[in-house]
């Protein structure tokens, strides 16, 4: 279950962190999600250090939410609302348009899904097959995750959810659109493709949701979003959520909403409070030995390592793999089916370390990432916040470790100004280094190029 749906079931506002159930992304191109699928039993929670976080005093039962939706939330163990849910639901359940600011992992997905299901349960279908609600997401992984969350929250609502996105079988998704669709989730490009071929009719949409609106601008999708919203029913309810509500996002919101209600949550806390941040000063040549020591010391089941470039990612993936770690690289040019397989393996734990660039990791939602490492300090402070937000999700305790070398330490002041605080820092010592036992990356690549063929990846070497 994505951490955006987290509402931790405790009887006090200060509550101990719990672990949400882990959802496995399907590795096939099948994208239809029946909301009647039984939820999996939650795994045993890992042993973690206790930590308390502040939640709202509002319960889902305090709001006028239909019984089938409350049953779905109760089946997930969700009773108390997160702040974004507590502030959004009083307005959205009354049919008001929303522009909400909230970081990923704060529960915004549940806020708009509850709103959608209430509207669909309390109104009649005006068209036999056309979608009644639409959710636009910037990435394929996020679209799949939202569709999966809809199956969990709407377990007792019996609605048909279809997700459409690029990189997989066009015909198969098209066939799914031929039947009745209650909720359509998709990325802008693929959704527009079906619209232009008259295969999707949004004129009967009652609720339209734009998720991660700031990323839509970053990825150049804003014109596509305007096209989609412009073809939706004029009488719809519109919900927009974004990590930031800057000028561009608010301009988009005001053009496509009516009397929009602005909701901002924790504007003074840019980074999640449940993430323990560490900064280690280490020489550039010692970053790999330090990372090898860190991984051995922390022994994470899932670790996400960020680099600034694809080239750096290829080198680090090679080095980690040949030092005994089941590592995979997620870069922007990885084919969609392979991306889905890598993410699925990472969720299941067969991939221990996922090396990724910022572009490749957009929309990546994986529960229980115990450790995030900034192998390269990012130049954009917002990228830093998005990176460390991949751990400590749903209020769980997370750890984010950043390596500051002599060439990238200049990015640190801007990051700390953006955070509004100093990151606790230490200097790495020689005792915190493990020697690189793998072969030379450069020599291996040159040898492969000279043979004219890339060798199959061997099994990883046994760790120390």
Output the keywords:
16 helices, Rossmann fold, seven-stranded parallel sheet, alpha/beta, eight-stranded mixed sheet, 16% strand, 34% helix, 464 residues, disordered N terminus, 17 strands, 2 domains
Written description of the protein model:
The protein contains 16 helices and 17 strands. The protein is 34% helix and 16% strand. It is globular and about 65 Å long. It has two domains: 3-264, Rossmann fold (3-Layer(aba) Sandwich), CATH 3.40.50; 275-451, P-loop containing nucleotide triphosphate hydrolases (Rossmann fold, 3-Layer(aba) Sandwich), CATH 3.40.50. With 464 residues, it is an alpha/beta fold. The chain has helices at residues 67-75, 83-92, 108-122, 140-153, 170-176, 188-196, 213-218, 222-230, 247-255, 287-298, 310-321, 336-348, 358-361, 381-388, 412-419, 441-451, and strands at residues 14-16, 32-34, 52-54, 98-101, 133-136, 160-164, 183-186, 207-210, 237-242, 261-264, 275-281, 303-306, 327-330, 353-356, 371-374, 398-404, 425-427. Helix 12 (336-348) links the parallel strand 13 (327-330) and strand 14 (353-356).
């Amino acid at each position: 279950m994505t951490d955006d749906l987290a509402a931790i079931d405790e009887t006090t506002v200060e509550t101990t962190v719990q672990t949400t159930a882990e959802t496995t992304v399907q590795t096939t191109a099948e994208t239809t999600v029946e909301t009647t699928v039984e939820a999996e039993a939650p795994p045993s929670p890992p042993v973690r250090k206790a930590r308390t976080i502040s939640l709202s005093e509002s319960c889902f039962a305090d709001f006028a939410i239909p019984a089938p939706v409350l049953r779905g939330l109760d089946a997930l163990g969700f009773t108390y609302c997160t702040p974004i849910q507590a502030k959004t639901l009083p307005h959205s359940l009354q049919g008001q348009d929303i522009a909400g600011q909230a970081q990923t992992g704060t529960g915004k997905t549940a806020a708009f899904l509850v709103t959608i299901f209430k509207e669909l349960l309390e109104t009649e279908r005006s068209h036999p097959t056309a979608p009644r609600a639409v959710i636009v997401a910037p990435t394929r992984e996020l679209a799949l995750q939202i569709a999966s969350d809809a199956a969990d929250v709407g377990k007792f609502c019996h609605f048909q959810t279809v997700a459409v996105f690029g990189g997989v079988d066009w015909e198969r998704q098209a066939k799914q659109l031929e039947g009745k669709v209650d909720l359509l989730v998709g990325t802008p490009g693929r959704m527009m493709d079906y619209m232009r071929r008259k295969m999707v009719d949004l004129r009967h949409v009652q609720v339209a949701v734009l998720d991660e609106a700031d990323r839509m601008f970053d990825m150049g999708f804003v014109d596509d979003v305007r096209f989609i919203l412009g073809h939706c029913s004029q009488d719809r309810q519109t919900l927009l959520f974004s990590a930031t509500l800057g000028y561009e996002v608010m301009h988009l919101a005001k053009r496509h909403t009516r009397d929009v209600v602005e909701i901002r949550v924790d504007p003074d806390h840019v980074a999640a409070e449940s993430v323990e941040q560490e900064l280690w000063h280490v020489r550039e040549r010692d970053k790999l030995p330090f990372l090898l020591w860190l991984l051995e010391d922390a022994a994470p089941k899932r670790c996400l390592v960020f680099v600034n470039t694809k080239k750096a990612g290829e080198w680090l993936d090679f080095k980690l793999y040949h030092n005994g770690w089941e590592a995979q690289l997620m870069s922007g040019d990885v084919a969609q089916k392979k991306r889905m397989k890598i993410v699925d393996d990472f969720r299941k734990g067969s991939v221990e370390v996922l090396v990724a660039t910022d572009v490749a990791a957009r929309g990546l939602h994986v529960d229980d990432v115990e450790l995030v490492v900034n192998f390269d300090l990012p130049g954009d402070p917002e990228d830093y916040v998005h990176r460390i937000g991949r751990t400590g999700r749903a209020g769980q305790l997370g750890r984010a470790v950043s390596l500051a070398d002599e060439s990238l330490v200049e990015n640190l002041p801007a990051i700390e100004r953006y955070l509004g605080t100093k990151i606790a820092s230490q200097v790495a010592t020689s005792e915190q280094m493990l020697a690189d036992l793998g072969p030379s990356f450069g020599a291996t690549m040159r040898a492969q190029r000279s043979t004219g063929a890339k060798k199959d990846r061997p099994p990883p070497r046994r760790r120390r």
